[in-house]
Amino acid sequence: MNKAIVVMGVSGSGKTSVGSELAQRVGWQFFDGDDFHPPQNVQKMAQGTPLNDADRIPWLETLQKLIHTQISQGNSIVLACSALKASYREILCKNNPEVMFVHLAGDFQLIADRMRKRSAHYMQANMLESQFATLEVPADAWSVSVDQPVANIVEEILQSLGLI
After folding, report:
1. Which parts of the chain fold into alpha helices (H)?
2. What's the rounded Cα separation, in Å, for the pair 7 and 17?
3. Is 39 exposed, middle or buried (0-12, 13-18, 19+ CB in 10 A)?
4. Res. 120 pLDDT band, cuts 50 70 90
5. Which of 144, 143, 26 has the alpha carbon at shortest distance from 76?
6. Helix (H, G, I), strand (E, B), or coil: what is residue 37?
7. Three-class SS of residue 50?
8. For the stretch 95-111, what's the b/e string if a residue is b when 16 or more beta carbons lie within 10 angstroms of its beta carbon?
9. CA-CA distance, 107 to 145, in Å (whole number)?
10. Do residues 42 and 137 make contact, with C-beta atoms less than 8 angstroms apart?
């Protein structure tokens, strides 16, 4: 059965790095949810304004359709997507019972330090507080600590999900 693994968490938790390496290890296609934001969302975040539900829901619906299309075409995928609220995760799962979530968990200070070090990303470190305020830690996802190298995180995910 084809599957979709959504690597989720706040900005700066490593979703893209972990997701792309995970996809490479299992031979699945990788998609970065950030690539599907409409220009107005990117502009808003670049200006330091957090997105609200009205901004996020059309984006999440686009990602839900992406998952559905890929699975319908016989593909398994890894998707990096913040999926911060339970209601957002429900949108991603609509007509997609094959979705599994992996939560990249880390404390505020660790992730804030990472965000200050990265460049060329529209999400600014000062918006991290809004991400943590919005985050509803999922009870039904594998949770992996991000205080370790990406290779270790990927290995833990592979073992936890029985993919190796």
Report:
1. 15-26, 39-46, 53-72, 86-93, 108-117, 128-134, 150-160
2. 10
3. exposed
4. low
5. 26
6. coil
7. coil
8. ebebbbbbbbbbeeeeb
9. 9
10. no
Token pair, residue 137, equals 């830690």
- Bridge partners of residue 77, in order along the sequence: 4, 29
Q: What's the token pair of residue 115? A: 């965000």
Q: Which residues pair with 79 in a beta bridge?
A: 6, 31
Report residue 10 CA to chain centroid gap.
8
Place of tokens 């609220």: 85
Structure tokens at 91: 């949108």
* Pairwise CA distance, residues 4 & 88, whole Å: 15
* Closest C-alpha to 29, from 90, 81, 76: 76
Q: pLDDT (tens digit, 9 = 90+) per residue, 5-31?
A: 999 999 889 999 999 999 999 999 999
Tokens found for residue 62: 């686009």
